[in-house]
Design brief:
Length: 219
Amino acid sequence: MTGPKLLSGHGRGDYAEARLAEFVANCRRKKMAVTPQRLAVLRALLESGDHPHADRIYAHVRREHPHISLATVHRTLERLCDVGEANKVTPLHETARYDGNTRPHHHVVCVRCKRVEDLEAPEFDTLLIMSVEPGFGGQAFIPEVLVKVGIARRLVDSGELTILVEIDGGVNEDTIEQAAAAGVDCFVAGSAVYGADDPAAAVRSLRQQAAAVSPHLRL
Ligand SMILES: [Zn+2]
C-alpha cells in the first residue's frame, strides 16, 4: 500500500507527459482543435507545482509564444476547466488559481503564504469526527464538535478536500438534525438503533430527519 504523498517534481513530469498525450486524444475525439497555444498553456499548468494564476502561466507561455495575449491565456484556462482538463482552486485566493492535476486529491494550503500543494492520499475517503469520548456506548453528544464539522464541510464544498464527513457518538433523534445541518454526510448510531423496539424503523426515521435539514443529503 502506498501512503499519502506530496506529488514530487519528478512525478509531475511523467504525469504531465501522460496528460498531454491524453489531451490530444480527447481533443480529437471531441473534435476540439489542438492549437499550439492550448498545448503550451496546458503544459505550463501541468509542469507548475503551485496552482498558478493566469498571469504566471502567461509569463511562462510567452517565452515560446511571444504573440499570445493574457486574454487568450485566461480563455484557454477557462476552456480547459470546462472540458475537464483542469480545475479551479479559488476559494482561498483573491484571483483564480488553476490546477492541472485532475486525479482526486487533497490540497495542503499554507495559512500564511497561501501556497497550495497537492496531497495524494486516495486511501483516505472519510473523515471521522468523534462526538463523544471514544470508549463506551450511550454517552451524550458533544455539540462543540460541530465547529469541526463546519470547517470540514467548507473544505469539501470548496473542493479543497474530497472526503466524506462522518460523525460517531450520541447520534439519535435529538441530535442528528444539528449534525446534518452542520454538514455531516455519514452518521454512526448505536444505542439509538439497537436500543429501539424496531431498529429498522429507527434507521428510517433518523435518515428522514437528517435529509430534511441537510442541503446535500438525499435518501
Ligand atoms: Zn491540486
